[in-house]
């Protein structure tokens, strides 16, 4: 089933929250909606869940006139006075599913979520990770065609967050789920999803793979939000970018007629020591910080300092090196 948002706008209290959102949700995949706080992510999910209606535009699918996703909320929203078992079967009772089928579906889902031993516990007797699994089980037992996850890992520590990200990916493959997952953490979006939609100030700025986002952000707003990059101020004249750090050809993504411009250089993947057709500059290594398999390198280039990520021991402190762009650099 293919889902489509068509020119969806949302206005409340005189404020425009979503601005003409056009978005296709791929079937049986995980689509991440990534954006800063206040960008409209939860408002968009509420429309997908039919908790709210857009001011204009439509949410449609190839099979249902009124498609509706099932939401797993950021705070889980488990009923504190009900056991895990009672929480999981609650939605099935609302749907008037027979007792025998409720029993069968709930037992199967609890086994899938590896929480069968928690059946008679109450939410306040569970860890954060266990509560997360119960909330997912309560949603998935309804057999949703579209599962919506609203910042589901924000309250978990880093180790448990990574564990749950892997678990969600396994569930998606096993159950062939279509999932929309919203977050303001780039690492979560990249780890969980092959397609990421960037939502900034109520607008979808770009939909792409993580690699495409890092290498070719659609505009300067996307590039600055993604971070982990150097932004070099200069000028665009003719077909060249001009700045003390670098003067040369670039892939110009700015507006025609602008004179000031910004060179985008991501920390990772933008520069290398191996020669390419795109020489960048010579820089002296001013600092090295070990970050596992890589080192965070600070270079002194003319009067500027820039950062990049290189394999451990690729460069030595206080030594100078010629660097090359991996591809034609981008200027906004």
Descriptive account of the structure:
With 332 residues, the protein is α+β, with helices and mostly antiparallel strands. It has 2 domains: 3-211, Rossmann fold (3-Layer(aba) Sandwich), CATH 3.40.50; 228-331, no CATH class. The chain contains 8 helices and 20 strands. It has helices at residues 41-48, 84-94, 99-112, 128-140, 158-175, 186-192, 210-215, 220-226, and strands at residues 3-12, 15-25, 30-34, 56-61, 70-72, 147-150, 179-183, 195-200, 203-208, 229-237, 240-242, 247-249, 251-252, 260-266, 271-272, 279-290, 294-301, 304-311, 320-325, 330-331. A 6-stranded mixed sheet has the order 5-6-7-3-8-9, with helices on both faces. Strand 16 (279-290) and strand 17 (294-301) form a beta hairpin. Helix 2 (84-94) packs across helix 3 (99-112) and helix 2 (84-94) runs parallel beside helix 4 (128-140). The longest helix has 18 residues, at 158-175. The chain is elongated, with a radius of gyration of 24 Å.
